[in-house]
Amino acid sequence: MNWIGQQIGGLVDFLFPAACPICLGALTSAAPASSFCTLCTSTITPLPSGRCSRCALPFIASSGSSHYCADCSRELPAFSAVYAAGLYSGAMKQALQRFKYAGAVDLDQPLAELLYAQIPPDIDEHVIVPVPLHLSRLRQRGFNQSLLLARALAHNLQLTLEQAILKRTVDSHSQQGLDALQRAKNLNNAFVATRRLDGCKVLLVDDVMTTGATVSACTQALKDVGAMNVNIAVIARAPRHGNG
Ligand SMILES: [Zn+2]
Ligand SMILES: [Zn+2]
What we know:
The protein has helices at 3-15, 38-42, 70-74, 90-101, 108-116, 135-141, 145-157, 180-188, 213-224, and strands at 82-87, 126-130, 160-161, 166-168, 191-193, 201-209, 229-237. It has 244 residues and is of the alpha/beta class. It folds into 2 domains: 1-42, no CATH class; 49-237, Rossmann fold, CATH 3.40.50. The strands form 2 sheets. A 5-stranded parallel sheet has the order 1-7-6-2-3. Helix 5 (108-116) packs across helix 7 (145-157). The longest helix is centred in the first third of the chain and has 13 residues, at 3-15. It is globular, with a radius of gyration of 20 Å. One zinc ion binds next to helix 2.
């Protein structure tokens, strides 16, 4: 670039500084090697070491000992492990809400990069499968947030994306008015896999994991068609309340 080009580039940077994709504040040159500003980065909390060794539920007393939560002790979930970029709080929560409800779809890559950093490097031979949306919800939102994240993650991990294997046949909108037990029962029949996956290892991708009911139902559908092992990758892990 010639001298005039450099001056114009500098002026453009000065007039239109790159914005943090979460808070939309200016990304200063002092920001660390992150897609987010220093302030947002500081409120992204990794999962505590005190968490369920199966479903990654954060324990209130965050001692480092490894054990199962009450639910997993009662009945182990069908999935093997949960990887998460962080807790569903602070800037992470804000980012996911902008991504999902305000159409900030360009957050897919920065969020997937945070998740990628938490996935063990020896994960290989897995196929990446997103949690599907029901068709009516997809029409309403215009995109499946889990598919965008799964696509970006598959690119980072250099693994194959299988985006059409799982179908959601029951819309969770129709779950309103049902109690927790009825919801879980409904969810169990909400997903079907469209072809055999004999002996496959699957990394199932979703945006947020709360109760784990959704990823458990997807895991069951994948195992019903022969998947050998299913691991879960979510951007954020929430404490157990609400849906999902
Ligand atoms: Zn920010
Ligand atoms: Zn657990």
